[in-house]
Design goal:
8 helices; 2 domains; alpha+beta; two-stranded antiparallel ribbon; Alpha-Beta Plaits; about 200 residues
Length: about 200
């Protein structure tokens, strides 16, 4: 026979268990969640100019996937295969934007230094990837790329010896600085100071 105290303890315990469970309806409702990605902005560096011109989306996609498999094994390949894509590719500048899932972006990032050549149409070109920026959106990567290109133009301007070349680069720098910025977005003071110093 169960004492009165034992019944109250059991019912209190049962009430605690039931109250600690979330509402069944809340647990079964579908919740829309945005998949979070990371974008790796990289630059393909090669001494051979034909390397950049032979760059294609599918070749780069296969090369990165094979490198991830080689470095991180089947776990890395499976983890990175979902959501991985080459989002942007510029064969002239060698700029590449890779998209991957947020949870596994470090696997992709750590595999990039192991890419030492690019093979396309029977030709093999030595190259490597320089990771410039890791961002949460394409927009942040785009902003970084604009600032990066401005700095590269200023470096070219400082190293320029020919007068005609110097004038062409000065026009490019002023054009890039004069482009209409979006509201609330201005060229940083350090970038504008660098531009005026480099043009003098």
């Amino acid at each position: 026979m169960i004492s009165h105290r034992g019944v109250s303890d059991r019912s209190r315990m049962l009430r605690l268990r039931i109250s600690s469970w979330p509402d069944l309806k809340a647990r079964t409702e579908a919740v829309m969640v945005r998949f979070k990605h990371r974008y790796l902005l990289c630059e393909l560096v090669s001494d051979d100019p034909r390397c950049r011109l032979s760059l294609e989306d599918r070749v780069l996609d296969g090369l990165v996937r094979n490198t991830i498999t080689r470095v991180h094994g089947t776990f890395g390949a499976a983890a990175c295969s979902i959501g991985f894509a080459v989002r942007y590719l510029n064969a002239y500048t060698g700029i590449v934007l890779l998209r991957c899932r947020k949870d596994f972006y470090q696997l992709v990032w750590s595999a990039l230094p192991f890419i030492t050549y690019l093979e396309n149409k029977g030709h093999r070109y030595p190259c490597f990837f320089n990771t410039l920026h890791v961002g949460g959106t394409i927009r942040t990567c785009q902003k970084f790329l604009i600032q990066y290109n401005r700095r590269q133009l200023l470096i070219l301007l400082q190293n320029c010896t020919d007068k005609g070349e110097r004038e062409a680069i000065q026009k490019s720098v002023t054009r890039s600085c004069m482009l209409e910025e979006e509201p609330g977005e201005e060229l940083s003071d350090s970038a504008s100071e660098e531009a005026t110093v480099a043009m003098e």
